[in-house]
Amino acid sequence: MNVTYDEYGRMNYCPELHTKRGEPWTQEDLDYLKEWYSVIGPEEMSFALERPVKAIMTRASSMGIKVVGNNKRLKKEPTSVAPEEGH
């Protein structure tokens, strides 16, 4: 299984994990999204509903659902370790 991530650390589409990609949303899926999105967030929701993270986030946004708390995404920047001084 080849899993890749976007620049924000979100998992890209993976056929083995996101089997419902492109399928219509059922009422059960929408109800689950409404009830749990703000609790578990888009990443875990993507596994529960077998859809890509971006699809989960887009659907939640179109329904006016938001994650409660401070879960803002920050763009991941390459990190470097500064050399230690005095050694």
Task: Describe the fold and architecture.
- The chain has a domain of 53 residues.
- Helix content is 38%, strand content 0%.
- The protein is globular, with a radius of gyration of 17 Å.
- By secondary structure, it is mainly α.
- The longest helix has 23 residues.
Q: Report the biggest beta sheet as strand number plus sense, adding barrel if it closes.
A: none
| N-to-C SSE string, H for helix and E for strand | HH
Radius of gyration: 17 Å
Q: What sort of overall outline do the alpha carbons produce when their principal axes are compared?
A: globular
Helix content: 25-40%
Low-confidence stretches: none
* Tally of helical runs: 2
As a percent range, the share of strand residues is: under 5%
Strands, count: 0
Distance between the termini: 43 Å
Mean pLDDT: 84
Structural class given helices, strands, pairing? Answer: mainly alpha
